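Why does residue order matter? Because the sequence determines the fold. Keep that principle in mind as you read this record.
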Amino acid sequence: MWRPLARLFRRRPPAEAESPDPRAEELREKLAEARTVVDERDEFEAAETTVDQADPELPSVEERRAEVHEGGRARVEQMRNPEP
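Structure:
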């Protein structure tokens, strides 16, 4: 009795394994092309000068953030205490 049950649970290789899917090779080519594009982009971006290095006179992010918050606080104070 156990033999028929064993046949049900026995692993069989899929029928598609005999002939590879033609779309698989197309996908492999696309992935290889995408990898080269990413490598080229990384190489290109490594050669670029960042904005903070290009113009050191620009305020730092922390300084700019402080200015924006200070301006926001001033406007809130103006709305709370409007001048007649």
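The helical segments are 2-9, 22-47, 51-54, 61-80.
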